[in-house]
Specification:
By secondary structure, the chain is an all-alpha fold. The chain has helices at 3-71, 77-104, 107-135, 142-172.
Length: 173
């Protein structure tokens, strides 16, 4: 073999090696970019779920003392005012957090967030009916008390389901 041919073969091996090295580097960068994007996405989802959980807790903290007073037949007009404020302010904040969860997904978690909203609204409505009945001095409160407890428990179960599903999703992501 002459020197010219050896030089061409050597250059060809060098070019192939460089191309293979470049492909390998590109694959590594692509894999790293996907991993970084998945980690970023998971953090965004975790943050959106956390904000929604804070809004749920704010509603719970607003509703529970009012429910205790209503169940004990000690509701006042102040309780009704606090419920109205909660419905206006806290549910608006809850809805905003739910929209972010809907955007970040996944769909099953977003659907659970919507169900939690329906459950909390039903609890608020039942609680308002009971508090109004107590404030107005109605005599037959047992059915409204039972409904408020039942709806509140259902809302709590929906919240628990949301928490478990969100945690499961984040653990898998």
């Amino acid at each position: 073999m002459d020197q010219g041919r050896a030089a061409v073969y050597g250059a060809l091996v060098g070019v192939v090696g460089t191309l293979l090295g470049s492909c390998f580097t590109w694959l590594q960068l692509r894999t790293q970019a996907k991993a970084n994007n998945a980690m970023w996405r998971r953090q965004i989802q975790r943050d959106s779920y956390g904000v929604l959980i804070e809004r749920i807790d704010a509603l719970r903290k607003a509703f529970e003392p009012i429910e205790r007073r209503a169940q004990a037949s000690a509701s006042t007009g102040t309780d009704l005012d606090q419920l109205e404020t909660a419905k206006e302010t806290l549910f608006a904040e809850f809805d905003a957090a739910t929209i972010v969860v809907m955007l970040e997904g996944p769909t099953p978690i977003a659907e659970l967030a919507i169900q939690v909203g329906h459950g909390l609204r039903a609890w608020g409505a039942a609680l308002e009916d009971l508090a109004k009945a107590v404030t107005n001095g109605e005599s037959d409160l047992d059915s409204k008390r039972a409904l408020t407890r039942s709806v509140g428990q259902e809302a709590g179960e929906l919240v628990g389901t949301f928490l478990l599903a969100a945690r499961h999703h984040l653990d898998r992501a």
